[in-house]
Write a structure and sequence with these properties.
The complex is a heterodimer of chains A (830) and B (59).
Chain A: H1 2-6, E1 33-36, E2 39-42, H2 46-57, H3 63-66, H4 90-96, E3 97-101, E4 104-111, H5 117-128, E5 133-139, E6 144-149, H6 156-165, E7 170-172, H7 178-215, H8 220-241, H9 243-254, H10 261-281, H11 288-313, E8 327-331, E9 334-338, E10 348-352, E11 360-371, H12 373-376, E12 382-385, E13 389-390, E14 395-407, H13 413-426, H14 430-460, H15 462-475, H16 479-498, E15 501-503, H17 507-511, E16 517-520, H18 522-526, E17 532-538, H19 544-554, E18 576-581, E19 585-590, E20 593-598, H20 600-607, E21 618-624, E22 627-635, H21 642-651, E23 655-659, H22 664-674, E24 678-680, H23 685-697, E25 702-707, H24 712-717, E26 720-724, H25 729-732, E27 737-739, H26 745-780, H27 786-813, H28 815-823
Parallel strand pairs in A: 16-23, 16-25, 23-24, 25-26, 26-27
Antiparallel strand pairs in A: 1-2, 3-4, 4-6, 4-7, 5-6, 8-9, 8-10, 10-14, 11-12, 11-13, 11-14, 15-27, 17-22, 18-19, 19-20, 20-21, 21-22
Helix pairs in contact in A: 7-8, 7-11, 8-10, 8-11, 9-10, 10-11, 10-15, 11-27, 14-15, 14-16, 15-26, 15-27, 16-26, 16-27, 26-27
Chain B: H1 4-27, H2 36-42, H3 48-58
Classes of the chains: A alpha+beta (830), B mainly alpha (59).
Chain lengths: 830, 59
């Protein structure tokens, strides 16, 4: 969104002034200032100015010194306490909060835009000073705050308003959120880790005493004592801290597979049991210190991996947070403000200008212009009236409607989209599945190698057989191998989601760098999907506004993007027998009269005489059986970032094809202006698919970039499909990558990231495999003690994770260069 | 040297206490935010009333 604004100023000088609060470029000619750290700084919008003034007024200006990341540009309108009044209702507290003691409740809030420690500091300072706030813990990693509140002293709505006034829009958290599970998992791991760490220090000190004692003639009683006390500490520690591994190994074994935890758990239990037996029989060397140390280092690695994965899993959840904080419900008794939890299917809601629709439903009364940009990226509001369906998460731009709720909560389209995101997150990519299978084989090999090594060493030197076998088991654990691909893809997915690109099939990321050809659709892809009506030419005594109204009604049945140009003129009067003919036009019956709207050829078949278009450009004709009624000239504005994308792709050596269903002149004009040499016009979806098949037959790896619905068959045939999806179509689109934002520049970032993803995966896999193969002979030769093997293995996994993390970090940095690119004078016409 | 028979079990009891204390801290989400407390120290002039309330709650 912000990029749209920054593109407004083609003058490079405009980009050089950064907003003192959010760092976005200040639009040219805007004179807004606020005090930041004692100095007057330019502000890019009212939202930033309000927040900066507020922070300064509260004496919290240190925020600007503390922060290490810039906040997102806040909304122009900041919510006030009235927007949260429904949160003070008992139903909200009953549903979302836990009562700790009389007069005190605890509840979780999901906050927008929290990303650094300074945010958390600012929130605790500014909100924590309210008298009723007993405590407020902000978890930066989750973007959640745990609030303990006395609602009698400070109502929840006041806390919410304070949070909103800083730009951290609060949302009530649903109790079944997966984040609780994440946190429990993290806590369990942390506890196991610290127990193992403390236990390790104890057992090591006893072992050390034993070793030094051996050189200084320790008496037998003391030696026995150290051995026993080691056992007393090590056994519970190993059982408690190691249970994560035993459990996971047992689970995989039970399902008949070889998991990577099997050799690890086996090594631990083997060492533990043999040490207990040795202690029991008082028969020499024990391995208690090795076992505990081994568990500690393994847990250290696993904990880091867990934290990194949970962070990567936190997708951009703006979608889930898009519902209103309160709604106005209509009933026999009148209207009342209620919270979301009190709603039921069938309830009637009143929604006015500036409010968000809470549930999927049907409009009963009234009409409004509705902005579905959250669901579609389409920023131009569409007109809806009684009888139309609307989706949760859409915003009413102007107007007022009465809505009957058809679907709530989990059943809304919005939830469907969120679920889709979740699925993509859980999808096991092909390469990761392969790595899992390889790991399974690998584990079997490792187990046999360990057994053989143990047997051989038994023959050579029985006292070394066990430690060497343990070292082999540990050193060759294929953890890093199994982790390499998924962590890299998870990092990249997270980075791309922040750029507004959803990945439905993570495999596509691996295929992207191999692309040689890209087939681009014109309408809705390179150009915006919403055309504008430029000119109306009537024939005979037709009234222009009546012609537009007729066209508006007819196009209601059309799914073709061109139809959108007429939707503002649709007066809602009934159309019967509406029919949309692909690549031709629409027909329908209005007031007993059959009409057609479409291309010249489509009209000819109706009126039975040839028609010629009145000029250059995209002309659509309106006709009834008596003859031609009017011509409409439509034009599609170029999509933002289209010129840059074409340049970027050509610079990286890809061959571009423009394949459009549009007429030749239009396609040629666009291709020439963008510098695309290969173009085909007037193609049906089947012909587009044939073109792509031909390219593929020539050995090309082809990506198709199109709009999700019209190009669905072509997208399905491509090696990698990318779609610019709109509305509910985001969920229905079968493309591998879906661009949800308004501009094409984001797609450029995805394409730039892809080679790095592939490189990272290759680095990870070769490192993991190389390390395992290299260390194995040394371990078999008895040169690596078990504890060192544990460190090596954990380090190997950690390196893989950290390497993948770079991907997520860099992809977010990639945003700023693209902004700079936009600020330079646009090369193509726009 | 027989003092070790007292001191070492004592150290183990201390360790158990430490683990118990740590579990308590984890349960109370003391490890969920490891970044902000570092900033609190840099702040010279926190609102006094708020500080008291917070510490009352923790105690």
């Amino acid at each position: 969104m912000s990029a749209v604004l920054s593109n407004d100023g083609p003058d490079p000088a405009a980009a050089s002034i950064a907003c003192g609060h959010c760092g976005e470029p200040v639009p040219q000619g805007l004179k807004l200032y606020a005090k930041v750290a004692g100095e007057s700084q330019p502000m890019c919008c009212n939202g930033c100015q309000t927040i900066a003034t507020l922070i300064d007024g509260a004496g919290l200006g240190r925020y600007y010194d503390f922060r290490d990341a810039l906040p997102q540009r806040p909304d122009e309108t900041i919510q006030s306490q009235e927007d949260f009044l429904a949160w003070d209702r008992n139903a909200v507290l009953d549903h979302h909060a836990r009562r700790i003691r009389p007069g005190q409740v605890e509840l979780a809030l999901v906050l927008e835009n929290v990303h650094c420690a300074a945010c958390s500091w600012l929130i605790r300072r500014f909100v924590g000073e309210l008298p009723g706030v007993e405590s407020l813990q902000v978890d930066i990693a989750d973007g959640r705050a745990m609030l303990r509140l006395n609602p009698e002293r400070t109502p929840l709505s006041e806390v919410a308003a304070r949070l909103a006034s800083l730009g951290y829009g609060p949302h009530l958290d649903t109790p079944e959120a997966g984040q609780d599970r994440d946190r429990d998992q993290r806590h369990e791991m942390l506890k196991a880790l610290v127990v193992a760490g403390l236990g390790m220090m104890q057992v090591m000190s006893f072992a050390l005493a034993g070793y030094i004692g051996a050189m200084q003639d320790i008496d037998a009683t003391s030696e026995r004592f150290f051995q026993l006390i080691s056992m007393v500490v090590a056994v519970p520690v190993a059982l408690y801290s190691g249970r994560i591994f035993y459990r996971s190994a047992w689970r995989t074994l039970k399902s008949g597979r070889m998991g990577m935890d099997v050799p690890v758990a086996l090594a631990m239990l083997l060492a533990l049991l043999s040490s207990i037996v040795i202690t029991w029989l008082d028969a020499g060397e024990t391995y208690f210190d090795s076992v505990v140390m081994f568990i500690f280092f393994l847990l250290l690695g696993r904990y880091a991996v867990l934290v990194a994965r949970q962070k990567a899993g936190r997708l951009h959840s703006a979608l889930a947070r898009a519902l209103p904080t309160q709604v106005r419900r209509l009933s026999q008794k009148g209207s009342e403000l209620v919270s979301m939890v009190e709603l039921q299917v069938g309830d009637r809601l009143q929604i006015s200008t500036g409010e968000t629709i809470a549930a999927d439903g049907t409009i009963l009364k009234g009409h409004a212009r509705i902005d579905e940009s959250l669901l579609s990226g389409e920023s131009i509001p569409s007109k809806r009236q009684a009888g139309d369906a609307v989706m949760a998460g859409s915003l009413i731009r102007d107007g007022q409607i009465e809505l009957r709720i058809d679907q709530l909560g989990q059943n809304t389209t919005l939830s469907g989209i969120v679920r889709l995101l979740d699925q993509a997150r859980q999808f096991r990519p092909r390469m990761a599945q392969l790595a899992d299978r390889v790991a399974g084989v690998f584990v079997t090999v490792v187990l046999s190698a360990a057994a053989v090594t143990g047997l051989i060493w038994w023959q050579i030197d029985a006292t070394h057989a066990l430690p060497v076998a343990l070292a082999v088991l540990v050193v060759s654990c294929p953890c890093a191998l199994a982790l390499g691909t998924p962590v890299a893809l998870a990092s990249a997915t997270r980075g791309l989601a922040r750029l507004g690109i959803l990945i439905h099939r993570p495999d596509a990321l691996e295929a992207l760098p191999r692309l040689t050809h890209l087939v681009l659709d014109k309408t809705g892809t390179l150009t915006q999907s919403r055309p504008e009506l430029i000119e109306t030419r009537v024939i005979g005594d037709m009234d222009p506004s009546r012609a537009r109204r007729l066209a508006g009604r007819l196009e209601r049945v059309s799914r073709h993007p061109l139809g959108l140009a007429f939707s503002p003129f649709d007066d809602g009067a009934p159309v019967t027998d509406g029919l949309s003919v692909t690549a031709s036009g629409v027909s329908g019956v209005i007031e007993g009269q059959a009409y057609r709207l479409g291309k010249a050829g489509f009209i000819e078949t109706m009126i039975g005489e040839p028609v010629t278009e009145p000029g250059q450009g995209q002309w659509l004709a309106l006709a009834n059986e008596q003859g031609l009624l009017a011509w409409f000239l439509l034009d599609l504005p170029l999509r933002q970032g289209a010129a840059e994308l074409v340049q970027q792709l050509q610079a990286s050596g890809k061959t571009l094809w423009l394949a459009s269903g549009d007429r030749f002149a239009n396609v040629e004009a666009l291709a020439t202006s963008l510098g695309i040499q290969n173009y085909h016009a007037e193609l049906s979806p089947e012909e587009k698919l044939a073109l792509m098949r031909k390219l593929q037959a020539e050995g090309a790896t082809v990506a198709m970039i199109g709009d999700g619905i019209n190009d669905a068959p072509v997208l399905a045939g491509a090696d990698v499909s990318m779609a610019l999806a709109e509305g509910a179509d985001i969920a229905r689109t079968q493309a591998d990558l879906v661009v949800t934002g308004p501009g094409l520049d984001r797609l450029g970032s995805a394409l730039a990231l892809a080679p790095r993803v592939r490189r990272t995966i290759i680095q990870n896999l070769s490192w993991a495999l190389g390390y395992n193969l290299l260390a194995l002979p040394f371990a078999m030769a008895g040169l690596i003690p078990p504890w060192l093997a544990a460190i090596g293995m954990s380090a190997s996994s950690l390196i893989v994770v950290l390497n993948a993390r770079r991907l997520g970090n860099e992809s977010t940095k990639a945003q700023s260069p693209s902004r700079m690119m936009l600020a330079s004078p646009p090369a193509g016409p726009s | 040297m027989s003092i070790i028979y007292v001191l070492i079990p004592l150290s183990i009891i201390l360790m158990i206490l430490a683990i118990g204390f740590f579990f308590w801290a984890v349960k109370n989400n003391q490890f969920d935010d490891l970044d902000t407390p570092a900033l609190d120290v840099l702040d010279d002039d926190p609102p006094a009333r708020n500080r008291n309330e917070t510490s009352d709650d923790q105690a």
